[in-house]
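Protocol step 4 of 6.
Sequence for non-specific serine/threonine protein kinase (Sphingomonas corticis) entered exactly as in the expression construct, tag removed. Do not edit the line below.
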Amino acid sequence: MDAQQISTGNDGLDAILRGGLPANRLYLLEGQPGAGKTTLMLQFLREAVVQGQRALYVTLSETREELATVAASHGWDLDEFDVFELSAVDAVLGGDRDQSILYPWELELGETIRLVEAEVERVQPSRVVFDSLSEMRLLAQDPLRYRRQVLALKQFFAGRDTTVFLVDDLTTGGTGADAHLHSLCHGVIALERLTLDFGAARRRVQVQKLRGVDFVAGFHDFTIQRGGLDIYPRLIAANHHRSFVGEPVPSGVGELDTLLGGGPLRGTCTLVTGPAGTGKTTIALQYLHAACRRGERGVIYQFDERVGTLMARAEAFSMDLAPHVDSGCLAIEQIDPAELSPGEFAQRVRRQVEERGVRMIAIDSINGYLSAMPQEQQLVLQLHELLSYLNQQGVVTFLVNAQQGLVGTMHASLNISYVADAVLMLRFFEAEGRIRKAISVLKNRAGPHEDKIREFRVDAAGVRVGAPLAAFKGVLTGTPEYVGERSPLMEDRDLGA
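Step 5 output, structure tokens:
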């Protein structure tokens, strides 16, 4: 960290700020009630305590007891730093504590500012939080007078070794468009709370300005957890690249690998698409199972199916995943729909790759991913950035995408084939009164691939790929039909083959 920068006390925000905030400046934190401002400011002050410095929280809008409740919910002690409560300043003014309580709106604005300055002189803090500007607006009753007092505060702290945050809850006319106030501050950070039609509220943070710092612009998702704000910096794939060998990754099924010219290469994404029930997830599990047997770590993000059902189904197909899960080689994360933001999901993926050393990832399914975040905008772009990051890390990624319909004409709810390096298509077809499955490779950017259509089967013998179906027609028109002889088809007698 640069000598002129200080940590905000929040690792995610520090990453967005590329190290922290320039010290001894005046900043503005704005956001509507419930956005997480108080929690972030408590983290900011607690960081000063960790550094062995004094900190001061000046509160006009909340009582000390209310602040203590917020701190206790995170396991913090409010006594770690000084709290100056202007709703009980009668003692400061020389009055008797047993007399009437003096509230901030009963004071002249100038007197309020003088009380704050006197407390700063007494405490000599390295960090100060002033909460909130809405009370100052009410006291001033005039925009010009209000801005003059804010300027006076800035001038008071100028030259002091103090970093100051002014908090604005935007409830008394502050709509975030107060350009004059923004211009007075060295930096502006905005917190937002978005209420969705269904599911948990989404929260995000944006650094609107910060003089002299090349911060990561744009919105960044965050959640409020016990212990503070968990901020997920927006993923920029270009900033994450490491060298790797783009070798083929085998599945353990020779015929399946032949379709992709030896298997998908490291640092590529394979889309497995087709109607429900054709075996898309099973193909991804086959590759993950083979990776774990080689000692490579993998993870599957399960949006649609319960983990218990997935494990039982894999075992029925001769893939016992339990030992790999118990050893920590394979992680299966059940994603709760409507409780996850794109930023949090990307952060989960990054932790698996950077902390666990995961080499293979499956997302089951893209339909579930999109359904879990129905009101999010630009989801495909965010997914594209995530896949670019995984490719640059040398991770093999499988995307499971269920097409709408079972037989006949198929179509996807969202065309995401362009984000994949390879596309495996599965289809149902009928022959001699039986429902069968076909598999083919539509594209493979990483190299040559087989252009034949083969029969595909998943049963107690595991994943099996049959010989090319020369007399098979109509698979790409949406009405697949087999009109050849019976002998080339896979039957139960082939189990021992």
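Step 6, annotate. Residues 65 and 78 are 9 Å apart (CA to CA).
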